[in-house]
Amino acid sequence: MSVGRPTVCAVNAVQTYRYLQPSALRPAGLDLQTCGGPAANPRFFSGFLTTPAAAAAGLLAVAEVARTRYHQPVSPASLDPVVTGSRDRLRFESFSGCCGVYARMDVVPAGFDGEIVGHGTTNVDVNPPLREALARVGGIEPLHVAVGPEDLTVSTMDGAVVERKVPLPGRWLRGFAEVHVLAAAFEPRAEIPAAEAAAFLRRLPRGDRSVLWAVPAGRGLRLTSRPVPGAVCLAGAGRLAALRGLLRHARTLRVYGPPVRAGSPAVASTWELDTGALRLSLTLSPEPYRGFSGEGAALLALAGDEVVDDAELVGGLLSWDPTIDVAALADAVGLPDDRVRAALAQLGTAGRVGFDVADGGYFHRVMPYDAGRAERDNPRLVGARVLVERGAIEWTDAHATVRSGEEVYRVRRRPDGAYTCSCRWWGRHQGQRGPCKHALAVSMMTTPAEVGV
Amino acid sequence: MNDFFKSLVRGRASAVQAALAGLDEPARRALGDELVAHVQRRRDNWWAGREATALAVAAVGTLSTATKAAALLGRRSVSLQDADPEPVIETARQRGVVWLADLAYRLAERLPRNDPGDGWHFVADLLVAEKVAPPTGDTFVAGWAQAMWWHPGNRERHLPLLDWLRADPFLDVLLPRLFEVDGVGLELTSGGFGDDRQAAPRALATLAAEGRLDRSALLDGALGRLLRGDRPAALRPFVDLHDLLAPTPGEVTARAATHLRLLADGPGPVAAMSQRALRGLAGDVELESLLDASRAVLTRPEKALVRGQLSWLDRLARQRPDRAAEIAAVVAVAAEHPAADLRDRAVVIAARHGHPAVAAVTVAVAGDELPVGVPAAAAPPPIAEVDELVEEVSALLGGRWPALAVERVLDGLVRLGTTDRERLETALLPVLQRHQVSADHRWGAFNVSVQLRAVLLAAAAPAEAANRRDQWADLLNECDRRTLRPFRGPAVEPAGRSALTQLYCARLAEIGQRLDGRHDPGLLAAPTSATGALDPAALYDRLASLGDRPVWRWDLTQALLRLPSVVDEALAARAAALGTPAGDELASWLRGDALPAPAHQVVTVGRRDRSGSYDWGYDRLPVRRTLAATTPPEGVVDRLGLLTVTPQPVGRHYGGRGNLWLTVLPGHRGLVAAHLLPEIAAAAQEDVQGGATILPALAECTGAGGPALDLALAYGLCARHEVDRVAALDAMLMLAGAGDLDAPAVGGHLGALAADGQLTLTRAVTPLRDAVAAGARLSIWRLLAAALPPLLAAPTPPRGTPDLLTLAAETATATGVRIDVPGLADVVARGGGSRLVTEARRLARALAT
């Protein structure tokens, strides 16, 4: 039974990349070219990477996720990774074309020796010749790395400008932002040594699309078919393939996920390799065919106006700290902690903060695209606003009746504050992908400030 | 319609050309606008073959720019695959079109990504005619790769690949891109060459040998591709190309760093290629880098690769005695390898070169260390209000039918349908309409799905119920002859439908009738546990609060079937004291007049008969399948058919609704396993994904297992898909934790089935190893000790037997428990160096100490 016509997203745009020249590995070191963000071609870092082989493997993994579709290649969308220079951290992030895998490499202070000269987030070029060159990087001698062009005039003179236009789908933007809202609920579930991690990751079936769970067993992890408390969901195990390159440099594998209990549906999870000098993490969507874009975790937060105002206030105070201290921020703006957290979630959907599960906190990052628009124009949110405007909601006893066209839906508020609905969409997903538009409309009518499902 | 369009529709390119011949430019352009409108109007037409040729001629003959022509010919409804380019080129020449090359470039951009060959030849011919350089976009390159083996239509083009490439004007421009475009390797291998999957690499290597192509460019291109990585199958032609070029030692030395990187991190076949290339060098590789790479190689799971690396390092240590200690230290890395034979070899080599092994001390623990099983969760609370019921119905209609959800909805319907009728009607009807639940019942009365929909409709629209009453009465009348009890009495003929269908349909018909009542307290059979089981005390309470209301027979039957099969005299006395017929029934059930245990028998069935001469499905069926048959015990009449499982030939079993079986008999898992066994076996024998995922739920139920459960676990361990094997492992651990696992019986079946060729034994190795890691070492040792005798006795022990021997040796040592393995001594006595004998010797040693 299908759910009627597919949702057409009207916010597809085009992303133009304009790099002054291709990124390249030269005898002098690695020159990563940038474009967009705080400047046309910003420069963030110049210095040395202390573990070049591991950093090269990590960068390759991030680039691999950026150019892969793990589910049904439809159109050859391939958006470049982004790099964030914040205080004490270089972070490379990418999001797969299928919107189901998010990769991030965090280079911590032990991993670089040099100065972060600029703060901000920008696109970074990783082209095929560079990938080949990165695959050859070895040895233990520190590698010089420059993020951003050194001298604007010289580079533009030789006419090697790289310009590409690629589609920037709305669902890709929404998914990229949504990851962080989901990740904020993750907790550490297991930490296993490298040897066991390698054995575990190598045995995973490649093309498998089924939903499995992993539980700690002995020193390693064991697969199991059903969720138990403490288990981590592993859906489409083949999507962890990008971690393999870094395996032999890693010390530990850490796994994060939301709390589950027996009978839980599939959930998202984060798999992170730590080498001591850098961390590479992959966050997987609950099922291979499900992009993060449809998870709807942030919709209730976006339904209210108060949160938006708070977010503006909080957003103004972020200052490229590697982790955002919620309590300090709450003091600074004079809001309670939970409202600051809600505001941060809201900023996350606009691509203005990310969430680092290893640090257990948000970090400041501003996407080099208008990511907020995509989430504001979420089809469900748009639909809900229309319902509210039409006055389609009517309260009968404790529950609401929503009239949408010919149809009549009943929306019920559960004791835990979540809404349920009698529509087909809800019947199919049962709250696993956030509220339906009818429930959203009802929540807009009642308590705008309420957050969380 | 004028001649132009008539000819176009009929696919007559020459007639279209003729119609255009005398026209001047303005007339052509006017016709061009009509043409675009014509194609847009005929949206359902598929332009292919001659029609596509005619359309292309018309487009080139009338449209004003390449953009317009490309937009028309690039439509998804136009397939240029078999279009003839000749008349198109001719038309362009006649009209003096200057944008034919531009059109070709634009069409190249629009080639379908998932089938780049569709239209490639047409575009290529235009390019050749215009004598321009080919485009280098990904799709065009992929189409070129496909064109190396796929030449549609035109026979004369079908030159041998080598000659075709030699004459190919695109070769020099497109060849470098062959190494750059992701996934193009798949096009190079995917069929067409017949058995020769190396045809393309061989042709390229030959051209390099002739000097037509640059040999080092090919080598670097292939290695670059391998370094950047791709899907394993897409890398294969590049590995072949590298090997066919047979690089000289000089060439390999120049690329040694790349090979070392591929050896350490590349996919298996690529690493093997690099190992071959480097080992041919005889000592020209820098030792530090080699040792660094070796550390990574020796932890890889590919055994051949590790074995090769070990012997290479062994040879190297002999040649370089000065560095032998250093090399031996690296060799010792493999002493931790998961494969026992490699561990042994590494220890021997390391010791030979001065790195003695540290003897591992194992402390034998003679037993399993498994977490104590947690009891199954309680069933979710009953549905409390109409809106919740409506949501649950919506969820039920939208997906699969989880048995517990069905039970909750039925219970809710009975209670709320008889207390809050009006609200239920108003809320339920729109949901049923949205899901298009109709009153159509062509499928006959005994159909669970039809009857469930009928009950829902009856609850939403009372007028519906009136139409159903007769059918329900008939259905219940028929079922009256097939009551579960008494267990003794005259026999009736078999029903010809499954007991599951019969029981559910009878219950649904009853529920339909109950909807007419007032203030119904709900189902007696509503489960209290997530397994579907019903607590006897809860059933007693429900009966007690029923007072003198009527008891519905099939509801009570199902309630009794859901009780655990234990005798409870105290509760029975209280039930009897109720003084009602239902109370008496419960009392006698609790006193032991419960569902009798059937007799199990293991039988092997063959395939169904071949039907007709074109029965392609027949040859794909497994030849034999071992199943469990059950029969009612002596003197018991099985009117309902619950106790009788008659195995059907392979290919004639129709499963379905298997998840409902568990909640019908949650206290009799052996019987449920017998009913579900064909589906579970299909997970191992017919590659069905998800066939065995029910096993953990089965393990969570109670009751005797018997051969059906043991067989189910054996099949599950050898299932084709990971998700099924993991489910079997979970079930096995749960049973072992609860002390309900008959490990020797599971092992006996596993060995016998594998020896008979019914199972792929190698698949069981990983789940069994995982079970040991999870703590079930004694259970697995007992399982293996029973599995090995039939395997060792087989004329040629199936693949995987040595792995089981290794695991047996490990578990025997870890537990310190001695179990005799018949047939082991015979294999050891054969002598020789085969893996089977080596591993048999290892087990014999473990048992001797």
What structural category characterises the helix and strand content of chain A? alpha+beta
Strand order of the largest sheet of chain A: 4-10-6-7-8-19-18-17-13
Number of DSSP strand runs of chain A: 25
Class by alpha and beta content of chain B: mainly alpha
Fraction of residues in helix of chain B: 55-70%
State mean pLDDT of chain A (0 to 100 scale): 86
Query: β content of chain B, as a range?
Result: under 5%
Describe, in plain words, how this protein is organized in 3D:
The complex is a heterodimer of chains A (453) and B (849). Chain A has 453 residues and is an alpha+beta fold. Helices cover 27% and strands 29% of the residues of chain A. Chain A has 13 helices and 25 strands. Chain A has helices at 52-66, 128-136, 152-157, 170-183, 194-203, 299-303, 306-315, 326-333, 337-349, 371-376, 379-389, 424-429, 437-446; strands at residues 13-19, 24-26, 29-32, 34-35, 45-49, 82-86, 89-95, 101-107, 112-116, 120-124, 143-147, 162-168, 187-193, 211-217, 220-224, 232-235, 252-257, 269-274, 278-284, 353-356, 361-364, 393-396, 399-404, 407-413, 419-421. A nine-stranded antiparallel beta sheet of chain A has the order 4-10-6-7-8-19-18-17-13, with helices on both faces. In chain A, β7 (89-95) and β8 form a beta hairpin. In chain A, α4 runs antiparallel to α9 (337-349). Residues 1-11 and 448-453 of chain A have low confidence and may be disordered. Chain B has 849 residues and is mainly α. In chain B, 59% of the residues lie in helices and 2% in strands. Chain B has 44 helices and two strands. In chain B, strands 1-2 form a two-stranded antiparallel sheet. In chain B, α27 (462-480) crosses α28 (499-514) and α41 (777-793) packs antiparallel against α42. The longest helix of chain B has 19 residues, at 462-480. Classes of the chains: A alpha+beta (453), B mainly alpha (849). Chains A and B meet through α2, α5, β14, β15 and β24 of A and α14, α17, α19, α23 and α25 of B.
